[in-house]
Specification:
By secondary structure, the chain is mainly alpha-helical. The protein contains nine helices and no strands.
Length: 274
């Protein structure tokens, strides 16, 4: 169904909302990110609080522009589709978010690789990037970008598309639930779906990016097939629970921050007109 048009956020507002949402989400959920990486790469879990949060500043600082880019690109595509004259259909909303996610992988892939290698090397962000570039040149920073694009297109379609769509459907079907409960349920359903679809892709990408030299895995598909051969479907979903919880939380946090910003802007515009 096509919803009524709301005044969309400007590019600057989308960038600010995305950046803020990315920082909040990363800082709240960094232990889940660390747990997921350690389990996927068969690494020992950290033994200190600092270990669980190793890489949080690099991750938050680098994820902020990525989430900002996803939200801003999504907003720009939305304006092209609707010309600001109507709301988007459910399919348009999901497709628009999917395209924004794929575009963002050019930024996200080197960030993921840096965090994975930082956890492995125990270096700071700058030292990690320098070590990676020294080993394989600047292009090595984009190892795993295709699988990252596949993951991010589905992920972004979840928090900017499917999550809001499901939340609205739940509100319509069960108005007594209230906005908060509907939002939690919508984010959880969308997050669980996105995690289930993308986790094998994320596992193969993590293994590929952890193996910088390519001695174990020549590509993400090679990592996927080898992991399945040696450990079956369970191996592809290593760390899946932590990542699913993290994604549901991310969908709720970022989706609600964006929704609040849109509602706040439209409420103020309505107040100004009256």
């Amino acid at each position: 169904a096509v919803v009524m048009a709301r005044v969309p956020l400007s590019d600057a507002e989308n960038l600010a909302v995305g950046a803020f949402g990315g920082i909040v989400e990363t800082c709240v959920q960094m232990p889940l990110i660390t747990f997921k990486i350690c389990v996927q790469d068969s690494r020992a879990l950290p033994r200190s609080i600092a270990g669980w949060y190793r890489g949080v500043f690099a991750n938050a600082a680098s994820l902020a522009p990525i989430t900002a880019a996803q939200v801003a690109v999504n907003g720009a595509i939305e304006r092209v589709i609707t010309n600001g004259e109507r709301g988007m259909s459910d399919a348009e909303q999901i497709g628009c978010a999917m395209a924004a996610g794929a575009v963002s992988s050019a930024l996200y892939s080197p960030v993921d690789l840096t965090v994975i290698q930082q956890q492995k090397m125990g270096l700071g962000p700058g030292g990690t990037v320098a070590a990676v570039v020294k080993q394989g040149g600047l292009a090595k920073m984009w190892r795993g970008t295709v699988s990252c694009a596949a993951r991010e297109s589905i992920y972004t379609a979840g928090y900017l598309g499917l999550g809001p769509v499901l939340t609205n459907k739940i509100k319509e079907a069960q108005p007594n639930l209230g906005d908060f409960a509907s939002s939690v349920l919508g984010a959880s359903l969308a997050g669980t779906f996105a995690a289930g679809v993308t986790h094998p892709i994320d596992t193969s990408k993590t293994l590929m990016q952890s193996d910088l030299s390519g001695s174990k895995f020549t590509s993400a598909t090679h990592a996927l097939s080898e992991t399945y051969k040696t450990g079956g479907i369970r191996a592809l979903y290593k760390g899946g629970f932590a990542r699913t919880v993290r994604i549901c939380g991310a969908f709720f946090i970022v989706g609600n921050i964006r929704e609040y910003a849109v509602n706040y802007k439209n409420a103020n515009l309505t107040a100004d007109e009256t």
